[in-house]
Amino acid sequence: MMQLNSAGTRRRYFFCMNPIHPLAAALGIAAAVAACSSPVSRPSPAPTELARAESLYADLRSMRDRIDVTLEAGHTGGAEAAPFAALVTSHNAIRSDLARSLATVDSAALRPDDARALGTMRRTLARDLGPVAGPIASPERAAETAPACDYDARSVAAAPRGLDSLRKRIYACYGWAQSHLVAESDTTDRLSILGALSRTGSPEQRRKLFLSLQPVWYSVNHDNQPGSPYRLLIAREVKERGNAEPSAAEQARASGVPPDSLERWLLRILETWREVNADSVIEPWDWFYRTGLTSRTLSPRISLERLSTLNREVYRSIGADPGALDVQYDLAPREGKTPVAYCTFGRRPRFINGGWRRGQPWVFATYRAGGLDNLNELLHETGHAVHISAIRSRPAFNDWPDSDPFTEAVADFVALDVYEPAWQHHWLGDSVPLADGLRSRYGGIVLDVAWALFEMRMQRDPGADPNQEWTRLTRDYLRIRPHPELSWWAMRGQLVDAPGYMMNYAAGSILIAAIRARTHAVHGQFMAGDSTWYSWVAPRLYRFGLERPTRQVIEDFLGGPVSPAALLADLRRINP
């Protein structure tokens, strides 16, 4: 999910740190697990006070990354409780040291890059790295029973910190509902049902499967009255934001997408989809079947056992072997696991003793079956992992870039190839016609675009009826038969957990189409493998973290400003 450069145009700064905090070393964080990827010259040292603070900052980020992964993996109880408690204690001690150290640094005496590093660390400490309380129940243990979902949303919203409380309550109920669905007397989950919709030949069975998602929709929007959880959430979000710019517009600008052009570009994508597809109206449960021919044809070739193997083989063929990069995967189902797939830092790359110690990204997802759709998602999450594995920035900037659309875009660098016949034939031994593959590729993208526009409209008019807004978008552009009685838009957790986030996927689709087109033109195709791909892409797009503004990274790579031209041209291949 998530949270995802012309090299040589600026001097690179590889910041050599002071010795690691002893508490971190005692817990094994200092262990160098691999040789550095390439020799790097030692930069000019930063002022002593800043160097010490940045070393502590790197230690704290390492500790917090371990805590996050430990929590998500559910390793905090029983025999693991004491080690986890020690981890929390050490984290909080390092945090206190860091806060004191940052306070002693005089920003007025720093070079511009050092001053920006100091500001970044201070903001991140205050915003994202607060003290950790313990003991903490793991997500698995916290969700062994259903959350209390028969609640009064108005009362929750009206309480102190009501917005956060309401969001957490909706998301907890959404997470439980989407993983405890019943279809044909079997308990299943949201993704399994969506996958089954693309494979089920009977329209009536598809309708029943689709309607089995109603508990998910209800968990978010109840009966769609003005007091529904979602409608109260969006109204409170807009009220608390006031006159501030929506985060989606801010993120678009950081990616080189003009906010005043964004809505027009997204509508043009939907209009082009409408132009290149048949003009017949379909039911929403038939949409997934219509756009699912590629998955329906090729999924039998991807068993659950082959899913991870194929993911590794694809990335290994382009010089980004997940094993060599120490990417870790947690893919098995378990109670209480987060309902969305995502990648996170388990350990960040770090410059130590004259060389780069590799990171250890973690991918969390839940797969009960193989199939092309799950492979596509796993390739996407691994795309995040190979991105953050390549970051080569000083600790203050060793983080996700300042653009979520860019981060989501480059995660799809490789994943989008699964819809190309040449890729399918090479990796799966069979293929579908190009138009069908592209229809499957863009079936998901245009839904993301519709969700992004839906959120824009709801934030513009939080009193609007969300069912009606969704009906208008899907009827007018996707030719889906209206069902305003159904809140079927309410099936994406991001709508609750991160309002406005769907814009990152939509804007990201524009970015990655342009980036892929530029790569094909300058470096060549890589669908059948290219051992030089990763070493070519990483220093141009991946290595910067927060060191360089993403807009500059993208425009340097493209040789000019972002536009939707590449995406629209690719979309028109459906019906040239």
Describe the structure in your own words.
With 576 residues, the chain is mainly α. It has a domain at 22-137 and 294-440 and 505-574: Neurolysin, domain 3 (Orthogonal Bundle), CATH 1.10.1370.40. Helices cover 55% and strands 4% of the residues. It contains 26 helices and seven strands. The protein has helices at 22-26, 48-73, 81-104, 112-128, 139-142, 153-158, 162-178, 190-199, 203-211, 214-221, 229-241, 247-254, 259-276, 284-290, 293-298, 304-317, 372-389, 404-411, 421-428, 434-460, 466-478, 494-497, 502-522, 533-542, 550-558, 565-571, and strands at residues 181-183, 186-188, 328-330, 342-345, 350-352, 355-357, 361-364. The chain has a three-stranded mixed beta sheet, sandwiched between helices. It has a two-stranded antiparallel ribbon with strand order 1-2. It has a two-stranded antiparallel sheet with strand order 5-6. The longest helix is centred in the last third of the chain and has 27 residues, at 434-460. The radius of gyration is 24 Å and the shape is globular. It starts with 21 loop residues before the first helix and ends in a 5-residue tail after the last helix. Residues 2-44 have low confidence and may be disordered.
